[in-house]
């Protein structure tokens, strides 16, 4: 089956892509990566807060 991607509604395109990819997603690896990203966000936020307290300048 072939479609013109531009003719699909964004929600429908998203649904089709997620349905096609879903069987190949390793949920354990995905959860580990999400946890790692959250740790990195917290570390970056902490760094930024410290930067301001140390007299750093904002861009």
Structure summary:
With 59 residues, the chain is mainly alpha-helical.
Main attributes?
59 residues; mainly alpha; 66% helix; 0% strand; elongated
What is the element layout, followed by pairings?
Blueprint: H1 10-21, H2 27-53
Explain what this protein looks like in three dimensions:
- The model has no long low-confidence stretch (mean pLDDT 89).
- This protein has 2 helices and no strands.
- By secondary structure, the protein is mainly α.
- Helix content is 66%, strand content 0%.
Tell me how many strands there are.
0
What's the shape?
Answer: elongated
Mean residue pLDDT: 89
Query: What Rg, in angstroms, do the CA atoms define?
Result: 20 Å
Order of helices and strands: HH
Percent in helix: 55-70%
Q: List low-confidence stretches.
A: none
What's the story with the biggest beta sheet? Answer: none
Q: Which structural category fits the helices and strands?
A: mainly alpha
Number of helices: 2
The quaternary organization reads as single chain
Distance between the termini: 50 Å
Strand content: under 5%
